Amino acid sequence: MTTASICTIGDEILIGQIVDTNSSEIAKSLNTLGIRVCEMRSVGDDHDAIISTLNSLLSKYDIVLTTGGLGPTKDDITKAALAELSGAKGFIINEEQDRIMRSILHSRGLDVLPANALQASVPDTCDVIPNRLGTAPVMVFRFDESKYGHPAVLYSMPGVPFETLNALPDVLEDIRSHFGLENIYHRNIMTYGLAESALAKKIEDWESALPSDIHLAYLPSTLTGVRLRLSIYGGDRSTQERRIDEQLTALKSIIGEYVYSDEDDTLENALGKLLKASGKTLSAAESCTGGEISHLITTVPGSSSYYLGSVTSYAVSVKEKVLGVPAETIDKYGVVSSEVAAAMAAGVRRVTGSDYSVATTGLAGPGGGDGVNPEGTVWVGVCDSKGCVFTKKFNYHNDRKRNIERFAASSLHFLLTLVKNDLNI
What global pTM score does this model have? Predict the structure, then answer.
């Protein structure tokens, strides 16, 4: 199987000044080609460290992709390091990239400075893939087996994410044309309601019985639950699909009640698909989640077709005056209670005219409990399309931000479960 590694170059990554999003996008794209990404590294703006790191990676893998260090400033030293690594005798101007660079700068009303002009200059040992959105091209260095003991290719890409992603299809096409590629097949199943350790315990016999060429990965997330990914490397695609389907059927017979999607998905997207397909609408009343549920719902494209809006009823007065929660209910049961969550859900459904509604009231912390409920408690209320109200309590023990995220995710899962029941799905 063709193997690869990804190396990000730049001090800004190592000091946490920017978040590396390029590596994940590159890795996903390589996987779709049937290339196995075996390693990711980051190295700072140090000439010797860059050469040492890339020599190490090229000696182990067929393909190495780097990002960063190709800018016009003095700290962008990747090109010089690659020239030394590849034994270049000098630099040449790539005319196509030079035209692109000049066009970009002129369109911005900028002069072409000497530092800009040098970006179209590349080592004489590389092929060039033009970068249509930036001033520095993708450089491709091809090594025969005499240097690393096997043929290896290094792709040096710009670090600016929108430039990287735009150039990636051309890089992938170059890889396709130079490597014989095997199939990699992945399937994901999304679960919620079981912690990773509890889930592993529940399916341990099934996992132990997996064929040796089928690999299982646990990918937990606060907002989406635990994603289970099954992978097969190599083989015929139709056979791969059939074998994975058989394993997933067996898996769902064990944990079906915790599965909310058969594909890589989110709770809010899975919910949105149901609402859009059924023509039903939704609203929210949020206290302790402060708009987090509304935020998640509206990250889904097309959510305006089913999401009517929300009331962030943080203050008691808003719960009473806007949502119509009776003062005596709050006095008798407390703000953080099943009764108040139910009244909030019913109130926002009445105000907006939605088919479904969800409401939260709780204590995200820090600052202790309210004498009845400990910090980390949330009551969730859901109204179905018939006006029936259901409530459920959740308890978490994290910091404020993580508690709010868990409150929102648990609310969405509770809502999704009841919508499925209401629609007989």
Answer: 0.74
